[in-house]
Amino acid sequence: MSADALESPAAIAARHRARGIAEVPRRIGRYEIGERLGAGGMGEVFSAYDPTLGRSLAIKLVHAELLTGLVADEAVPATMRLFREAQTLARVNHPHVVQVYEVGTLGTSVYLALEVVRGPTLRQWSERRPGLAPALDVLVQVAQGLHAIHRVGLVHRDVKPDNVIVADDGRTRVVDFGLARTCVLGTPSPGGSEAPAGAHEAERSLPSPSTPLPARLTATGAVVGTPVYMAPEQLRRQVIDPRCDQFAFCVMAWELLLGERPFASGNLHTLFQAHRAGARPPANCTVPPEIVRVLQRGLSYEPSARWPDMDALVQALTQARTRPRTRLRIAAVALPTAMLAAVTLARLDLGASPCERLGPDGERAHARARTLAGAAIAAPQRTQLQARAHALADQRAAVCEQARADPQQGRAATAACLDRALARIDATATALASDGESTAQLDALTWLDRDAARGCDEANAADLPLDPRTATEVARVRTALDQARAELALGRLAALAEREPGLSAMAIATGFAPLQAEAAAFAGELASAQGDPTRARALLLGAADQAEAAGLDAFAAELWLTLARVSIAELADASLAEHDLRRAQASVARLPEDATLREGVQLRRAQLSRLRGDLEGAHTQLQPLLAALGDATVPPHAWPVLEVAIDVAQARGAIDEARGWARRERDAVVAALGPDHVALARLDYNLGMLELRHGDADAALGALERARVRWQRSLGPRHPDLALVHTALQQWHLQHGTLASARAHADLVVELRRDQLPPDHPDLALAWLGQGAMALLQDDVESAVAAYTRALAIEQQTLGSEHPETALVAVDLAEARLARGDDVLAELEPAIAQLERTPELDPQVLAFAGRVHAAALRRAGRSDDAARALARA
Q1: What is the value of pTM for the model shown?
Q2: CB 159 within 8 A of CB 248
Q3: What are phi and psi of 272, to 5 degrees?
């Protein structure tokens, strides 16, 4: 019998109960009961309606008598035990755990009133063959839900794909807690590696390995759960703790990512042997080895060798999947979220040093000038930073003199804000001094310019600690946070990931809520930069709540705008973004003089409209922001407005308008960084693509070649980012008939993509398609067939055979095979049918498919059918 046939006694008992029950109860508690939705491992689930609150829900009946003999404390009635555990579960309020509204009893059963979650199970969802990134997103959500369950002292005990719902609302939920237990079976031996005496007795009482597996599992009520997902100690009736769920999670994750179970076995004896041998990936595994190693540790035979908890596993999985991200495409991601402007460095004793020492001629200013002089930045940027620092220092000295002349005027908040702004310049200058020329300098410059635009006129006194000792510690931690934030703007993620927990701990230790909010905000921005928007959102939500509670309206507004950016650009969730923007507007309403924040809300509104497909709405919302730019050079904090304008104009088909904004953005960056900075490569690439769409061949080639040279000089000739510009140059040469050059660029794209990407990545499929097209145009039929065949295999694996894109690649391959003289009708006609069923398909695509179909029919001797196919094309 295969591993797929393994069943638990609880599942068998529940199925028998579902068949034999007399009738569905009409009411449970205050809930009106509808139809039976199904039977789970320990009970039954019904649809229900709550007349008091007017909402639909689900009722789960958990049958206590099925647990008889499964726990050590038989003196406690099973119903009461279940009731207490269900109450504990109801305290879990987590986005990735199904919500329990209420708990009650019905005879010997306990009922749970649950939210209704609509969507496929993880097993059903996996049948769609999602890519690696979506699968990892879902798994991280599951792990976070399990961690929330463990934190209240529960163990799920039946983690498997059928107990996970990939909900239609975008949030994955852990469900089916019929087996959740607070108790621990047996007593762990030192290290947890061997079973206690009682557990050994239980193991010896198991039926023999030669007994048919379902019969053996039914014979012992101890094996509760689904054995193929169960940890060895759970199968052996040893200690049941959160590490059992971790093991099951890793079995499930292995199955989803690698396409097979790590421990395939048809009986318990060989299953135990497989556990001891450990999990080994298949020879053709395409999952990155870092991710495999994370799962292998979670699948360790010894519980003590697994991850300390699910949170540690999540962190390891997130780090394993993280790759440096380069901003290469014009995208609606604006206003880099370095929005800590309202938080300040508390320098309360203004009379401690002469005011002159704080000014532009003071010792600190001279040290700053020396640091800026050694920074690896362009002369225009250095001049701008020096001018900004000089103005701030001059303002700081003036505030100092005013405070000394009239101590009652309460200028401490303004002084502290100016100190903080200067500290940020110091931190950025220090970071730049050890950094070569990089595209990340755009983010650093935008961050500082955003700070400058806000100013310190509205500094909030609530951000100042009253206790001098606390103020000293807060200043120390803020200095460290400023340095970390400058490094974040420069993209130094690996080192920051190690430092962030220490920074958070330092902030918490001060007990000062505004600083704790800052640290949480930094952690959230770091998580966003690492590609973990779910964790980023959770951290940023906590920071926003803390900022609001502390009365820091400007900081709270900035955090809600940051949350909106995450919701729009990273989660693509319009409903979350709408919520975030409403909260931002509420904060901004209390700051009527803060024009910068109002503009931030307006820009996010335009991005949200773009996400919803309302291009005209986005265009209209951008107009006031674009008009405010005037004719002057656009300052860095307004560059995101131009990026969104370019994206919206492209989407509207207004290529002339997009070209205009792209040229203006490039001019602004040249003014700030000079004409030779590598950051211009991305802008030149985007501008070249726009010129290509517009039909200005010379301008397109010039921009694309500038991008290629800058990227190649800075990143090296084999950097994967160069694949984009080689793809664009391939397109240019194709349009101008220089096929040899077009094919050379296509071959380079394939080489670069193969160096960087797993063999089933969709971008690699596009590279193979480009190579196939160029080969076919040069009559290199065999190379074209080989390239198209590779592309089709990737599309079938990632999108499925029924997807329109897969069908189109199948038509490409058919065209190449026809040129070789093959009979392709059997493979071609299902693809043609799929394309014809696809709504709103580009007519040119259908025409191409029709021409290939007609050629195949003619080759098969069906001239009349060929004529009809050609007429339809």
Answers
A1: 0.52
A2: yes
A3: -60, -40
